[in-house]
Specification:
With 88 residues, this protein is an alpha+beta fold. The chain has helices spanning 4-33, 82-87, and strands at residues 40-43, 48-54, 58-64, 67-72, 76-79. It has a five-stranded antiparallel β-sheet, with no helix packed on it. The chain is rod-shaped, with a radius of gyration of 19 Å.
Length: 88
């Protein structure tokens, strides 16, 4: 009986950690599915680009004049908002 409170606390911690990860995963999936042509994004490697084409497995990013690269959806770190783009 003395171990019961400790077990309950450990189970609660694991549940809260799992729940937080699930929320973050859903938020990221929603962000990736909302990306459309013309959006500015940053890859996880730090490359800024504009989405030129949305494909099934990834995106075609225009990073400079006449320079386009193809990246997977997992390579996109975030979408750059208008405020962030003006600051850079």
């Amino acid at each position: 009986m003395g171990m019961l409170p400790m077990i309950i606390i450990i189970v609660a911690m694991f549940y809260l950690m799992w729940r937080g990860q699930a929320k973050e995963r859903k938020k990221r999936e929603a962000m990736l599915s909302a990306i459309k042509n013309g959006d500015r994004v940053i890859t996880i490697g730090g490359i800024y680009g504009t989405v030129a084409e949305v494909k099934n497995e990834g995106f075609l990013l225009k990073i400079s004049d006449n320079v386009k690269i193809e990246v997977t959806k997992n390579a996109v770190g975030s979408v750059v908002t208008a405020g962030e783009a003006a600051a850079k």
